[in-house]
Amino acid sequence: MSKMARPGFAAIRSPRARMVGLGLAGVLVLTLGTAVLAEQAPAIGGQTSGQATPRLPEIQAVETAIRKSDFADARQKALALIDGDFAKRDPKAAAYAAHLLAQADMYAGHWQDLYDTLIGRAESVIRDLDQRRADEFALLLAGRTGRPDEQDRLLDLHVEAIARRSGPDSEQTLNARVDAAYSQLTAKRADIAEKRLISALNAMELNGDADQFFKTVGQAGEHFNRFAGTEAAQRVFQRGLASKLMETDTGPGKGFLQFNVAAFLRDEKNYEDAIHFGYRALNILADHFGMGSAEGLSAYDGLAQTLHASGQLASAEAAYQDIYETGLKSLGEDNADLWRIMNNRAAVLRSLKLPTAALEFDKYAYDKRFKAFGGGANDTVISAMNMAHDLFEAERWKDAEAALAAIARIVAQPGFNAGYRRQTERWQAYAQFRLGERNLSREQIQARDTTRFTEGADIEQSLAFFDLYADKAEEMALTKDAEAYREHAVATAGESLGDAHPMTFEAALAQARLQGKTNAKAALESYRKLDAIMFDWARSSVSASGSLRAGQAVRILVDDMLGSLADLATRNADAAELFAAVLDNWKTLTRGTERQLRAEAETTDDQALRDLIRTYFSDFGRFREIVTTTYYTDALMPLQLAMEDSRKALNAALEKRGQQPVAPWIRSSVEEARPLARPAAGDVVVDLAIIGEWRADRGGAPDRYRIFATISRATGSAEVVEVDAVDMRKGNAGPGKNFFARLGKALGAAAEDAKALYVIPADFLYQFDFAELRPAGGKRLGELVDVHIATSRQAYEFRAKGDRPSTSDAALLAGGLFYGDAAGSAYLPGSRAEVEKIAALAGARGMAVQQAKGNDGTEAAMRAAAGGKAILHFSTHGFFTHGEGLSEQLMNAGFVLSDARLSDEPKEGDGDNIVYARELLSWNLRSSQLVVVSACDTALGDIGVTSTVRGLPLALSVAGARRTLLTVERVDDAATMQFMARFYGNLFDGGISYADAFIKTKREAWAGKIGGFPAALTSAYILFEH
User: Fold this and answer.
1) CB neighbours of 896 closer than 8 A, spacing ≥ 6?
2) Do 822 and 749 reside in the same domain of the chain?
3) In the chain, helix, strand, coil percent, each to 5?
4) For residues 213 and 178, is the Cβ–Cβ distance under 8 A?
5) Angle (CA) 811 813 818, round 5°
6) Which of 242, 340, 670, 822 is most buried, by the most CB atoms less than 10 A from its CB?
């Protein structure tokens, strides 16, 4: 127990406990070179064919007492058998009883009693036992006698006896020498033990027995760490790693050794080296046994555990996804190794604050273990306890209480580790408090003493009780006490888990929420720091992992944080400014340093530098968008290399100019959100936020979405208003007329007296034309003010760059394409007329125009021709498809070109002449000022982690397009031809910007001034500014 105080921090009495496993301390079973740490008394039974001892009732009674960990009863029963009539009647059974007595004393730690009772009988006992048990008995007898000379004598006799029987250099003799070292180790004679061990290892190395050598080093390192400390363990492991066998042996032994070294380093929190050795172990064991083998998967599991311990939760979850899928195929679902892997994966999911997902794996492992081992088995109880953890995280208090009641009945039985009982009792108390079955008094809260429940508890339990005490303090209006508990929780989580961990995030958010009620200035600083750390974690860890689960966790955690900050921002101007900045960061996952780099590209006169920056952004964006939702494999290596090559080329240019180089995008760099620049006079920027309110169990979709508008003007502070809340639970319709009426009213109010309104959408609002809203039920918003749709604040900032065509520009136009059947049923006659009209208008302006018609517009030809073109226009068929995995792979949307070849499964490559969004990431659109995909549904997509649309808008932007004109619904061929012809006519004849030409075209359509184009169709077309 310890008191802890910090400057300005009221003390909370509670220990800072690290997460540790449950186990009986100080028990070491020494069995022929294989040292085993016992967590509880082992089962005894199963006599070998060479064992003559009959299983008499008296013997079974001793064995049962040991199984129940009733070592005193076992000793009493065994003593009655080693003398008297029983011994005379059956001396071999009496010898076995003496062996059981030695085991009972060893488990109880009564080494001196063991020696005093049995040393006088040693010769007869050893004579009447089978060889294996005789060797074990001799080691137990040597034990911790407290008499070094006598212990050495007994150990030497033991080794000599085996050497005479099997030879001095035999495996059995060398194992006996190792066991002798372990016996001295447990007797607290570490120096002597180490010398004996090293001598045995030298002999093994000289014999060239790599398997025995590496196995022994691995086990010895673990046990010397336990009984002699870290430095002794390091020397043992170093002896193994320095062996010439590391270079000469081609077997798996060195893989096993490095696996153990990695586990040791993980426990020492040397995660960098632990990961290094973990990877090496995995490569060796997977190469030798196969990745799907128990050995390969165990090594992979060990590496994933290290990633988990080091806080790299997203990488750990991505690894476990691969481990689980591989193990399920190779081992089958009825395999104990797979169940262990599932439990470990569930622990990662629980750390990610995804209890429903964790419960799915824990429940599966529990059911399998229950069926295989029974409800009282150690592994089954572990799975049951993990399920209780999941239920607590999901705030299913009653279910957790019921599960704990069953666990409590099991762990109360003799033979179970006392740690299980204490852990169960603490969780039971916690459930009772949450259910109101027990209460904390005002005096207990004010005492600020949680040690009754947190002393000896793991980090999960400790944080749960700190949160409980803080909640109760808030309910009682004991604000100072609540602040102290919240602050202590943040400090404890940060010390145990690090600042960049979901458990720490939750504790910090709870603190910020409380501060928001009492001290807005302190709350702002807490939100600012929390956002910066969360953002860096999402960028450097999650977005590079390829884990969809981790991406989901980020979305939930960010929604929680943004929702809380938005509430404060609606009533505090400084909070509104912060909310505006962090919202833009999260939508783009862009750091301040990258914003500066884009600004450099937009403002520099150095064309070569501009090209290098844009090339890097395209390669970087392509790799990031793919690896964010795809587990990294060698197939992605070319994309990574391209990104690194473009970064190095850019850095060479920056260094010549004396500027800071660009760091790898996944390198951790915590940067607080920077204030956003004010809009220009007459402009209003409205950044929309759609924030999910998730259930406590984090399963499924949010129950409700809250929609906020962040309004920025040329003068004054940013303003945050809550537009609406949309209930998404079963039976509710989701966004409807009332929602869009409220949105229109909010945007209309924001745009009063403005010349231009720039709306930055979020989530499903990317697929909505805001100009169509009617703020007061009369005129459309687009008739009242110029409405632009931007995808970020930087898109607004640089909106005037390349905003209109010039005579030096070139255009690529594709339409009137043949889709494999010449002018068949899929042919679009209007598309041919469309591109011909556009070509005439562009040509008259003096632009160079390349047209593709019929069979000329293949995918390969269009991709090759796209580079360097300011305008790209594809008039064809488009598509958007919902499907599992399609959105993550960006294979959910696209358009078709000449000789399109449909297949059941979407695939990359030019051969099918179908352009998927994923493929567009590799197109060179860095010169493109406008890309138009004049086809059905081309602006549609699924919502990604950063609340952008995963589809063509995202892909075209990443590839370099500055503006995209797309559709959000099905469009008519002939009508579209009329709309596009008018748009380009306004653009080229009027000499105005792309955005102004689009706005003018929409207004003409609303006024019925475009022949053959119904006004109702205008909502299908959206111009995005990227």
Assistant:
1) 817, 819, 876, 877, 878, 879, 913, 914, 915
2) no
3) 60, 10, 30
4) no
5) 160
6) 340
- Residue pLDDT, tens place only, 288-328: 999 999 999 999 999 999 999 999 999 999 999 999 999 99
Radius of gyration in angstroms for the set of CA atoms belonging to the chain, rounded to a whole number: 35
Instruction: Return d(Cα 960, Cα 610) in angstroms, integer.
Output: 12
The residue among 552, 562, 559 whose CA lies nearest residue 582 is 562
Q: Which two tokens stand for residue 286?
A: 């997977």
Collapsing DSSP to helix, strand or coil, 52 comes out as: coil
Would you state the torsion angle of the CA atoms of residues 490, 491, 492, 496, taken in this order, to the nearest 10 degrees? 100
Same domain as 707, residue 645: no
Tokens (6 digits) for 707: 């929609």
Whose structure tokens read 């762990």? Answer: 411
Q: How far is the CA of 455 from the CAs of 17, 39, 74, 419, 445, in angstroms?
A: 8, 21, 33, 12, 17
- How many helices (H) and strands (E) the chain has is answered by 43, 20
DSSP H helices in 334-373: 336-351, 355-373
- Cα angle, residue 882 at apex, residues 877 and 883 outer, rounded to 5°: 120
How many residues belong to the chain?
A: 1026
Amino acid occupying residue 642: A
Cβ–Cβ under 8 Å, residues 372 and 332: no
**H or E, element range at 3:** strand 3-6
Largest CA distance in the chain: 120
Same domain flag for 848 and 892: yes
Who's near 735: CB < 8 A, 6+ residues apart? Answer: 726, 764
pLDDT 10s digits, 335-366: 999 999 999 999 999 999 999 999 999 999 99
Phi, psi of 9 (to 5 degrees): -125, 115
411 contacts: CB under 8 Å, gap ≥ 6: 381, 417, 420, 421, 424
934 pLDDT higher than 90: yes
In a shared domain, residues 744 and 814? no
State whether 936 and 985 are in the same domain: yes
Query: Six-digit token pair at 497?
Result: 């888990």
Which pTM value belongs to this model?
Answer: 0.86
Sign of CA dihedral 751, 757, 760, 762: positive
Count CB neighbours of 269 within 10 A.
Answer: 10
Can you give the CATH number for the domain in which 980 is found? 3.40.50.1460
Structurally, the chain folds into a number of domains equal to: 3
Q: At what angle do helices 148-166 and 171-186 cross, to 10 degrees?
A: 170
Q: Enter the tokens of residue 1004.
A: 């003409």
Domain identity same for 624 and 692: no
Whether the pLDDT of residue 780 is over 80: the answer is yes
Q: Please say if the pLDDT value at position 53 is more than 70.
A: no
The β-bridge relationship of strands 1021-1025 and 786-790 is: parallel
What is the structure's pLDDT at 20? Answer: 25
What was the pLDDT predicted at 733? 64
Tokens (6 digits) for 557: 């955690």
Return the number of other C-beta atoms located less than 10 Å from residue 5's C-beta.
Answer: 10
Burial 965-984 (b: 16+ CB within 10 A, else e): bbbbeebbbebbbbbbbbbb
Check: CB of residue 330 under 8 Å from CB of residue 295.
no
Decide: 15 and 456 in contact? Cβ < 8 Å: yes
Is residue 156 in a domain? no
The partner residues of 711 in beta bridges, in order of sequence, read 686, 719
Nearest to 968 by CA among 936, 933, 921: 936
What is the rounded CA–CA span in Å between residue 873 and residue 932?
Answer: 5
Residue 669: CB atoms within 10 A of its CB come to: 15
The verdict on 777 and 819 lying in the same domain is no
Q: Are 787 and 770 in contact (CB under 8 A)?
A: yes
Range of the domain at 748: 683-782
Give the per-residue pLDDT at 634.
79
The helix or strand, by DSSP H or E, that contains position 815, with its residue range, turns out to be strand 810-817
Query: Bridge-partner residues for 602, per DSSP?
Result: none
